[in-house]
Amino acid sequence: MLSLSTTALLAALPAVLAQTSSSETVLGVYMFHRHGDRTPKVFAPTNLTDLGYREVYTSGQYYRSRYIDDTATFRIEGISPDMVNENQIQASAPVDNVLQNSAAGFLQALYPPVGAGADTETLGNGTVVTAPMNGFQLIPVNTVESGSGSENDAWLQSTSSCYKSELSSNEYFVTSAYNDTLSSTREFYQKLLPIISQAGFNASTATFDNAYLIFDYLNVGRIHNATIPHSNLLTPEVVTQIYGLAATQQWNLAYNASETIRAVGGATLGSQVVQFLNATVASAGSLTGGKFAVQFGAYGSFSSFFGLADLIAINDGFTGITNYASSMVWEMFTNTSAPVTASNYPSTKDIYVRFLYSNGTATDATPPIQYPLFGTNQMEFQWDDFVSRMNRFSIGTTGQWCSACGNTTGICEPYADSAGSGSSSSTTDDGRSGGCSNGISPAVNGVIGAMVTLAVVLGLEGLAMLVFGLRVVSKKRLRGGNGAAGGNGEAKL
């Protein structure tokens, strides 16, 4: 949910951001996508709802019309329009049912069933075999190492596995800003107890410490329930404050300008973007080269990338919690409409990258918006310049990650010496230097442990309470159909 000032900014930009595909050719796309609407975290395990399924499916339809279809407005050069070529498509998500199912729902729309006539094959003995579900196309969703179970956990850094990143986030809890807010909002959260006690919150846990869990619970309830007990307490001003406090808390856990290791999710994402698009360039547009990649993940990676890429220099609305089914897109293109082949593939000096963001489900009515990156006014970056700027904060190799995070066991054992040295700089896969500062002040040493989690430990009795309070009325059985008609992806409280 972006701030009103961001909304005003967007209204002023369409003429500047207008794109035309007639004079250019898109070479490759990398996308990071948030999951669709889900059940609340306080009643884990979470599940994708029918609305959430519809949101990601609708997003897949939009991006098919933008990049894949024969008549796509920004069709990726050489990509298969109807029958999926698995060498051209990469999809990934953590081991998490909401994120994996969101990825599957998105892919169903990106490459829909092939239909009658293309859904059969004749075996050697003459038998004709018809594929299930009108030629439903199966696209693998690979797993990424970090983020497993993230939609069942309230602690933003719980699945990062990065020691110094977790340590840095914990440092927020000893700041005067945190403690002042904790104290000044105590009465505000206590007044919400008639509503949130049904989710297991009590006088000791209804505080700013659990701002996100409280927001998330009420957000889901307001989306899915026609009536809410004690809803008179949720005035527009209160709703705005609930969201604002949760956004403030989560932003400070996801990013800190002086301790960029806190944004490790955005740092690793930055490297993944560069590595995928670089492989597309290296393949010179061959049919076996990757052309479109989509990774599903949680809102924290949006926030950390926004901070690292200095999008907050445009508007502080980027410090908010991004909506369900939001997407970030990096489009790599060249300024020519002539067919691109391996023999005339453009050199890197003629290849550019732009960044787009959709706060909620992308549609024709609400398409992603192009934004400048890195605190500049530039809308497009020449490839080498883009790589250089991304590598200033990206973490792209295991050794670099271990060194920056200070991890010394498991996969990091071979790099224990460099990790222990506190060095934060390494070399990325393409030989460029890059890194992430990892200085942590001594103050945090006294709070690691007790303050490592924001989660409220909720008993099973909360499930029974839910029946009488904020009840989510539908959970997604992913392949049971397209689900109920969704809205525009706005996950508003």
Automatic annotation (TrEMBL):
Record flagged with keyword Transmembrane helix: yes
InterPro entries according to UniProt: His_Pase_clade-2, His_PPase_superfam, Histidine_acid_phosphatase
Membrane spanning stretches: 446-470
The entry's keywords: Membrane, Signal, Transmembrane, Transmembrane helix
Keyword Transmembrane helix: yes
A single MF term (Gene Ontology): phosphatase activity
Family: Belongs to the histidine acid phosphatase family.
Entry protein name: Histidine phosphatase superfamily
Native source organism of the sequence: Neohortaea acidophila
